[in-house]
Amino acid sequence: MSAATDARQAGQRVEEVLDRLAATGEREVCAAAEELVRVLMDFYGAGLARIVERLGADAVSGLLDDELVASLLALHDLHPEDVHTRIARALDTVRDPRRPLELLGFDEAAGTLRLRLPASGGCGCGSTDDTARQAVEDALACFAPEVTAVELEPAAPPPPALLQIGTRPQAPARVS
Q1: b (16+ CB within 10 A) / e for 132-148
Q2: pLDDT tens for residues 12-65?
Q3: Residue 1 has what DSSP assignment?
Q4: What pLDDT was estimated at residue 49?
Q5: Can you say how many angstroms the Cα of residue 121 is from the centroid of all Cα atoms in its chain?
Q6: What count of Cα atoms within 13 Å lies in the side-chain half-sphere of residue 28?
């Protein structure tokens, strides 16, 4: 199991536990659990900030390819790269030379990343696009959690082939 999956699963598990507590209807218990998560996040974030500070930028830059480290740095707003650089880094981890992704833009206010994925040339069922979307979302969760939605635009259809129309060679005249 990858670090990306582990980090995502841990986040989902925390959400599930908080949702279960909220479902009990006990507001004080739910509020205490949410406060506990915030306090632990602040505590670990402060410790990570101190590690980053003491290691220095050069040492930290050597760790940025590690998905788990990158996700923790981004989560605690300690990642030294800007969001656009981190998006590019995430996309680099899922690039398929046979189907290159085209970055159309990132709306920082909405957290929406727009991509174009070339036509798969497959069965047309969309499962390949779903697989590509999931891979992109997993990578972005690690490197750029600011991206909250991914929009895949369909590939532009290829231009129609030119039909070459010429004149038919004339047949020699028949002599009867």
Answers
A1: bbebbbbbbbbbbbebe
A2: 898 899 999 999 989 999 999 999 999 999 999 999 999 999 999 888 888 888
A3: -
A4: 94
A5: 23
A6: 0
